[in-house]
Structure formats: structure tokens, C-alpha cells
Design brief:
Number of helices: 9
Oligomer: single chain
Helix content: 25-40%
Number of strands: 10
CATH superfamily: P-loop containing nucleotide triphosphate hydrolases
Structural class: alpha/beta
Order of helices and strands: HEHEHEEEHEHEHEEEHHH
Number of domains: 1
Strand content: 15-25%
Distance between the termini: 41 Å
Radius of gyration: 20 Å
CATH class: Alpha Beta
Largest sheet: 8 strands, mixed
Length: 298
């Protein structure tokens, strides 16, 4: 048996060439996407996926063409929040058609492969699999989706990242640049500490950081019509612009559980705050170049 030191170069596998061709295929598939925005959190339980869907709704409400790629392959939720759980993927052209809600928002999520509340049978991670190979398999799936889905012309493609501080950096290195990053936190020192480390690590990749959103910034009291404190005041500073503070609103959680029926938003302090986040995000990425540079498609 040969050891690594006995193999010259890449052993004839042409790994570098394969990676280069994959990047070109992804660039060609995303050629019609104007803005690629990755929404991460560093840790779970901060409402990142709910915020991603609400942000997509706010952007689409202004007339923008929006799609979401659910990159959390082991806990996909976007299909259920979009009302697309159990909706089969349909071939289109040389790839897969973009599943769309009735309001036109595209949603690509492995959750579409199972009925609402069903068991996820598409396992990207085998039990006992080492961390290195787990990440390799996940990015293989991500790359396949990016290059085979017919994304078409989009103003925004929002990528809902899986939890984990290290995942944020890995996605920054994998996604075609320059993908802008939005990090979601809650007003607790624990969550802000994780996001602070993610911001520091992202700075080393050169990825554009649009800012952070403070989710669950108080809760909306329907009885008195005011936003009341939900967490003690946090002291951990974050070295990024704050795109907005979104209070917890039970109605927003209900919309997600119901697949966010079209036209059912209604007045909500949380949705008003998300609309302001959409405005600030648009301004923040105005100076970021297009998602896929023209030369990358060649």
C-alpha cells in the first residue's frame, strides 16, 4: 500500500481541474443572480431561518425577484415555511426547475423531498462519520444544487446557512464571491460572543459583511401594543453594522408553521422591523460587485 509521500502530484485524479470546472459550472448557473447573500448565525436557536424567510418576503414585496437556498441539509426548514414540503422537484432544461411559492419566491430545500413533519431520509451525514468527510459530503451536495438548479434571473439569492461558527467561514470560502454575509444574533452575551468570533473569522476571508441582525430584540405584547424586554442587556460588542432589531412576535412563528400563506402577513411589529432590515441590506450591498463576475463564467 502506498503512503501519501509515495504519490506524485495528485495521483492522476486531476483534483484541481475538477474543482476549477465545478466553479465555472456554478458561475454559469448563477450568471443571472444579482446579489448572493449568505445568512448565518454561528449558533442555532436564534431564529435565522425564520428571519431569512421574512427577509425574502420583504424583498419580494418591493417587486424584487427572490429565491432561498436552504443549505442546512441535516435540518432543512425552508420548504415547510414556504408551504412546499412534499412538493416534488421538476426537471427543467439541463437541470432542476426552481420550486416557487404562489407569491413567486423560489425555495430550494431538501425539505421538499419529504412530507410536512416527515422523517428526513436524505442523510448527508452517516452515523460515526468523521467531521472532515461530513463537510466534504455537504459541500458536494451544495455544489450540485448551485450548478444544476435553473436559477434564472434573480435580484436576490439568500443562502440559509447551517448553524456553527466554523460553517460560516467554510461557506465564505466555498460560495462564489463576493457573497455578502448577514449574521443573526439574539441580545444575549452568549449568542453575541459566537457571532463576534464568526465576524472575526470572516474578516480573514475577505468576504463582504453586510452587517448583523439582532433577532428576538424584545417581544411584541399584543395586549399593550408595546415591545417589552426579553433578555438582559448584552454587553459583547459586534464589529459590524447593525441592520436592525426584530422583536419576537408569535404571529410570525405561526406564519412559518402554516407555510406562510400568501397575503396573510397582516400588521406586525416584527415584519415592520424586517422591512427596515431589507432597506438597510439593500443599501449595504449597493457597492458590492455582482454575485458572479462576468470573467468567472468564461
Amino acid at each position: 500500500m502506498k503512503s501519501y509521500s509515495d504519490i506524485a502530484g495528485d495521483g492522476g485524479s486531476n483534483v484541481v481541474g475538477q474543482i476549477g470546472e465545478q466553479r465555472r459550472e456554478i458561475a454559469r448557473a448563477l450568471a443571472g443572480v444579482r446579489r448572493l447573500v449568505a445568512v448565518g448565525s454561528g449558533k442555532g436557536g436564534v431564529g435565522k431561518s425564520t428571519l431569512t424567510m421574512a427577509l425574502a418576503r420583504a424583498l419580494a414585496g418591493r417587486g424584487d425577484a427572490v429565491a432561498i437556498l436552504d443549505a442546512d441539509f441535516n435540518g432543512p426548514t425552508q420548504a415547510q415555511m414556504a408551504g412546499l414540503a412534499g412538493t416534488p422537484w421538476v426537471p427543467a432544461g439541463r437541470g432542476l426547475g426552481l420550486p416557487r411559492r404562489r407569491d413567486g419566491i423560489g425555495v430550494v430545500s431538501l425539505g421538499s423531498l419529504l412530507p410536512a413533519g416527515g422523517e428526513l431520509r436524505f442523510a448527508t451525514v452517516s452515523r460515526g462519520e468523521q467531521h472532515t468527510w461530513r463537510a466534504t459530503r455537504e459541500f458536494a451536495v451544495l455544489g450540485q444544487l448551485l450548478r444544476t438548479v435553473e436559477w434564472g434571473e434573480l435580484d436576490w439569492l439568500l443562502v440559509d446557512l447551517p448553524p456553527g461558527a466554523e460553517r460560516t467561514v467554510q461557506y465564505a470560502e466555498f460560495l462564489p464571491g463576493p457573497a455578502a454575509f448577514v449574521l443573526v444574533t439574539i441580545p444575549s452575551d452568549l449568542a453575541r460572543g459566537v457571532v463576534a468570533r464568526s465576524l472575526s473569522a470572516l474578516a480573514g476571508t475577505g468576504a463582504p459583511i453586510a452587517g448583523y441582525v439582532e433577532n428576538m430584540a424584545g417581544y411584541w405584547c399584543a395586549d399593550c401594543g408595546e415591545v417589552k424586554p426579553l433578555f438582559p442587556a448584552a454587553a459583547v460588542p459586534l464589529d459590524a453594522p447593525c441592520l436592525g432589531r426584530v422583536p419576537f412576535d408569535p404571529r410570525l412563528a405561526e406564519l412559518c408553521d402554516r407555510g406562510w400563506p400568501a397575503g396573510s402577513d397582516g400588521p406586525s411589529e416584527a415584519l415592520r422591523a424586517v422591512s427596515e432590515v431589507a432597506d438597510r441590506l439593500t443599501a449595504a450591498v449597493a457597492t458590492v460587485p455582482a454575485a458572479v463576475p462576468e470573467e468567472a463564467v468564461r
